[in-house]
Amino acid sequence: MKNYKVLIIFTLVVTISAVFNQARAQKMQDVIYLKSGSILHGEIIKIEVNKSLTLLSNCGDTWVLNQSEIDRIEKQPAYIKSFKKDSLGNISYKQTGFYSNLNVGFLFGGNMETPFPPLSLRFVSGYQFEMGLGVGVGLGLDLLTEAYMPAVVDLRYTFRNSRVSHYVYLQGGYAISLESPDPYDYDYYYYDSDLKSKGGYLINPGIGFKLNLNDKNAFSFGIGYKYSEIYHTYTEYNGQEIDRTIKYNRITLNFGYHF
């Protein structure tokens, strides 16, 4: 039951972050409809009442228009293309600009007694620089023996801007405990030991590739290695408080959607 509550909380965080990211990335532009039928897009930088106005177009040109030429003026979202083409005509995804991605992963390794490997979710938002480096931050959900919420810094480098782009990534941060450990899940705790988890550090390097659908959307597949240290405190039967470090070594397979 606790895991379902955690999944609901994580879904709400991802949804709110995605809406905020979309609103932040969207810009507005001035659209001028001329009586001749032409349409100009850009930013009005000067107005002379009842005489003329000056428009700086999205192409960088400056237009001085008489009021008598103008049919109407509207404010509309500015959809700025964020892609370029390589020598083969392939489109690259988000060569520069803000990006977000949602990854669903699986953790392999350890003594798994369940038919499916533990789930790992990650939502990252950041900025992609033109030289191929991307820097972002993210929140996630790792269902290890207990549920944890990793807060991570995400670094990635894309080697090639083409329809299929290969990349390497490195995530590191701190996993926040979302539930108290159950002593019965471990072999070395006294059943009434007042067991608590403080969370712990993690690092996750890996490689992958993206299939770029267009200049705004892409799917990805990655494989990596995740190392986590989780810190427990518990009370022995004699009343002594003990600290213990639990280490997780896992292979990760993850599938992502980039937008």
Description of the molecule:
With 259 residues, this protein is mainly beta. The chain has two domains: 1-80, SH3 type barrels (Roll); 83-258, Porin (Beta Barrel). 9% of the residues lie in helices and 57% in strands. It is elongated, with a radius of gyration of 26 Å.
How many E strands? 14
Cα end-to-end separation: 31 Å
Strand order of the largest sheet: 6-7-8-9-10-12-13-14
Name the average pLDDT: 80
- So how many helices? 1
- The gross shape turns out to be elongated
Radius of gyration from CA coordinates? 26 Å
Q: Which percent bin holds the helix content?
A: under 10%
* CATH architectural group of the largest domain: Beta Barrel
Give the tags:
259 residues, mainly beta, SH3 type barrels, Porin, 8-stranded antiparallel barrel, 5-stranded antiparallel β-sheet, 1 helix, 9% helix
What secondary-structure arrangement, pairings included, does this model have?
Elements: H1 2-25, E1 27-34, E2 39-48, E3 52-57, E4 62-66, E5 70-78, E6 97-108, E7 119-128, E8 133-143, E9 147-158, E10 164-177, E11 196-197, E12 200-212, E13 218-235, E14 241-258
Antiparallel strand pairs: 1-2, 1-5, 2-3, 3-4, 6-7, 6-14, 7-8, 8-9, 9-10, 10-12, 11-13, 12-13, 13-14
